[in-house]
Amino acid sequence: MIELNDVRKVFPARGRGPEVVALDGVDLTVRAGDFAGVVGPSGSGKSTLIRLVNLLERPTSGTVTVDGRVLTDLPADEVRRARSSIGMVFQHFELMDSRTAAANVEHPLELAGVGRAERRRRSGELLDLVGLGDRAQARPAQLSGGQKQRVAIARALAARPTVLLCDEATSALDQASTTGVLELLRRVRDELGLTVLLITHEMAVVKAVCDTAVLLEAGRVVDGGRLDQVLARGDSPLAAALLPAPVADHRVAGTLLRVTVTDTAPETHVLQVLVGRLGLDVEVAGGSVETVAGGRHGRLLLRVTGADQSGLDRALAQLRDDGSRVERVAAEVAR
């Protein structure tokens, strides 16, 4: 488990500039075994947050707890030992060019004093796990970006951590490599029982692998939770970022309805009521439905014609009573 309580990080002023408040009272809990994401715009404090989890940066105030140990209460030598249970994957791989893939994976074990035979056995085991058993003697310059990141993941797992931190682990990769690395991270989490915290600015990454996520803005958590619950909330800033609400030209005739789709509130029921029971003309004016966190989620914009006001009001009331998430879209929202 990872827990940050009321964490604040202030960087002192440089020259005549003001001090910088990178994180301002952040609370974050990642349950054991979860794959959690932290998203937000540039400068929101994401990278500072992940460096606080393993105390590469110490918070100005607040506490950081990993696997039940309050790291912020530990002296420096104990923090170093505690870091052995926390693996980290970086954006730009951070591999040593002079070493082979196998030697890069062995490096943290070498620093920990593990014997040569055990280091070689462990590196071979991990390179097989990440699909690079046949590239053990390749140097980083001979590997693609996706392969380099797989080696970096293997290295992060060398000391058998319980927590894996990923700092923009796919932002330097092309789409195909990103997909492969995300699938690997999810599989490693499942097979090894890890807790994973991933920092990213890419909403597609969160949708692909995360169970939970938080949205950071200006150093504060403004929204978060389990993705299936977040995406079911109509007023969620994180849901709006993950699945932007569709818009349509309100000048075209008809009434616009926005439908929030979940497994328990499918769009098919809305269409059955509007078209099948009421005989209205319905056009899908925008939006999409995707599989996120193992379920169907999305937002659709429907244009409805052929209904008088009172009839449509009754239909909307019936749909809401049935559990459908549907709302009329005001003209100024749809522009």
Automatic annotation (TrEMBL):
<protein>
    <submittedName>
        <fullName>ATP-binding cassette domain-containing protein</fullName>
    </submittedName>
</protein>
<keyword id="KW-0067">ATP-binding</keyword>
<keyword id="KW-0547">Nucleotide-binding</keyword>
<feature type="domain" description="ABC transporter">
    <location>
        <begin position="2"/>
        <end position="243"/>
    </location>
</feature>
<dbReference type="Pfam" id="PF09383">
    <property type="entry name" value="NIL"/>
</dbReference>
<dbReference type="Pfam" id="PF00005">
    <property type="entry name" value="ABC_tran"/>
</dbReference>
<keyword id="KW-0472">Membrane</keyword>
<dbReference type="InterPro" id="IPR003593">
    <property type="entry name" value="AAA+_ATPase"/>
</dbReference>
<keyword id="KW-0813">Transport</keyword>
<dbReference type="GO" id="GO:0005524">
    <property type="term" value="F:ATP binding"/>
</dbReference>
<keyword id="KW-1278">Translocase</keyword>
<dbReference type="InterPro" id="IPR050086">
    <property type="entry name" value="MetN_ABC_transporter-like"/>
</dbReference>
<keyword id="KW-1003">Cell membrane</keyword>
<dbReference type="InterPro" id="IPR003439">
    <property type="entry name" value="ABC_transporter-like_ATP-bd"/>
</dbReference>
<dbReference type="InterPro" id="IPR027417">
    <property type="entry name" value="P-loop_NTPase"/>
</dbReference>
<dbReference type="InterPro" id="IPR018449">
    <property type="entry name" value="NIL_domain"/>
</dbReference>
<dbReference type="InterPro" id="IPR045865">
    <property type="entry name" value="ACT-like_dom_sf"/>
</dbReference>
<dbReference type="InterPro" id="IPR017871">
    <property type="entry name" value="ABC_transporter-like_CS"/>
</dbReference>
<keyword id="KW-0029">Amino-acid transport</keyword>
